[in-house]
Every structure is written in structure tokens, then in C-alpha cells.
Amino acid sequence: MAKILILNGAARKNGSTAKLIEAFTDDAKSSGNEVREFYLQDMNIKGCLGFEYCSKFAKDTSNACIQNDDMRLINEAFVSADVVVFASPVYFWTITGTLKTVADRLYAQLRSLGYNGFPRKSVLLMTAGGSDYSQAVRWYETFERNLGWEDLGEVLGAGKNRAAFDLGASIR
Ligand SMILES: Cc1cc2nc3c(=O)[nH]c(=O)nc-3n(C[C@H](O)[C@H](O)[C@H](O)COP(=O)(O)O)c2cc1C
Description:
The chain is α/β, with parallel strands linked by helices. It has one domain (3-170): Rossmann fold, CATH 3.40.50.360. The chain is 40% helix and 19% strand. The protein is built from six helices and five strands. It has a five-stranded parallel beta sheet with strand order 2-1-3-4-5, sandwiched between helices. β3, α4 and β4 form a beta-alpha-beta unit. α1 (16-30) runs parallel beside α6. Flavin mononucleotide (FMN) binds next to α1.
């Protein structure tokens, strides 16, 4: 059984990204995994301040960021997660700003234990109006490769629910 953390960066609660997440989650849960999803749009998460409090002064590695906002809920889930799912529509050829803001804020956790301190597995779920996912995929693959994470799979496309079910079912 794996603990799966879903970071849902879509703006629309019932859009095509939500359907992809639902398909993934249904079979991930049927396979006995524990799934926790955060709908980021509804959360109060500010951008990274970039002044490196986390790397210079923080003593508490579970809450290394000086900002006291909803990122603390995600940090808490992230620390014990086995799998991190990045879910987003394509906005201007990449992931949404909402999801990128949260990825930036993970920096504090990653800095506090060192980039290799959180060897997670990861998944990318994306939808788009068109078919150009290349920049988003490059962002995702660069992120997980540099952090030493293991990519479990990418599902790209609003109609790819079967692939999302299968990917969810394959997680252990
Ligand atoms: C601000 C904005 C920017 C977008 N940029 C792109 C884009 O660059 N490429 C693309 O294929 N679709 C783009 N789209 C379309 C969305 O990716 C597409 O409608 C997606 O399925 C929406 O996901 P949702 O149903 O989960 O909200 C954009 C939509 C919005 C609102």
C-alpha cells in the first residue's frame, strides 16, 4: 500500500483534469492505496519568498518555511507520501501557476533535508485544449530527475481515462 499525494492544480473543480484524477484515484484506491488530494485553487498558498530562511535558519525540518499558510498541510502530507501526483491542465504551454507555486514552496522541505532527502515516486496527469504538452512534460521530467525521483507514468489527454485507471491500479 502506498500513500499517494495528489496536487490538483486545475482551476475548474469539475473539469477534465478532475475527471482524469478521479479515474486515477478510483483504481488507486481499489488497489488498496491511501489517496489524499489537495485542490490547490481553494487553498491559501503564497509564492516562495526566495530569501532562503529554510536553508539558512530553519530548525524544524517538517516545517522549514517561515510562511505560515496552507502549505503546511501539504508539507505534512508530503513528508509521509510515497507517491506525488502532479495534476494540471496546460496553461500557456505549461503547468498552471497554481501548481508551480506549490512546487516552488516544496523547496523549503527539500532544502531542509537536502534535495536527495525525499526520494519520492511521481506521476503526471494533464489535460489540454490542444496537443502540445512538451514544455510541461519537460518541466516535470527535469524536476523529478534532478531530485532523484522515480517516474511512475504520465497520462496526457482529457480522454485518457482508461490510461489513468490503469496507472492508478498499478501503484503499490
Ligand atoms: C489561461 C488558460 C490558458 C490555456 N493555455 C492552453 C495552452 O497553452 N495549450 C492548450 O492546449 N490548452 C490551453 N488551455 C486550455 C486548457 O488546457 C484546457 O481547456 C483544459 O482541458 C482545461 O482543464 P480543466 O477542464 O481541468 O479546467 C488554456 C486554458 C486557459 C484557461
